[in-house]
Amino acid sequence: MGKNALSEIKLTLEGYIGQKIRLKANSGRRKTIERTGILEETYPSVFVVKLDEDQHAFNRVSYSYADVLTESVELTVFNSENEQVPVKYVKTPQ
């Protein structure tokens, strides 16, 4: 399940490269960080988000697909009509 689930998340995110994305990351001790930016690139183990320049002290952040799987990072993609599309792994019944 683990390897296949991570591959599915990666493939899903590849379809959203170049689109606006909002991420909500759990940074421990009941702290949650919200950031917005553009999904820039996907790599074998991580994906990179280029952050909006005005809002953040640094340019890019990267997270692993396992972060999405374990729900320590929640992703929301904005499609061309500016509608929000949540990205999460949903186990399909076999």
TrEMBL record:
InterPro entries, per database record: Protein_Veg
Gene3D superfamilies the UniProt entry points to: 2.30.30.100
Signal peptide bounds: none
Gene Ontology annotations of biological process type: regulation of DNA-templated transcription
NCBIfam families per UniProt: BflmStimVeg
PANTHER family, per database record: PROTEIN VEG
Name of the protein: Veg family protein
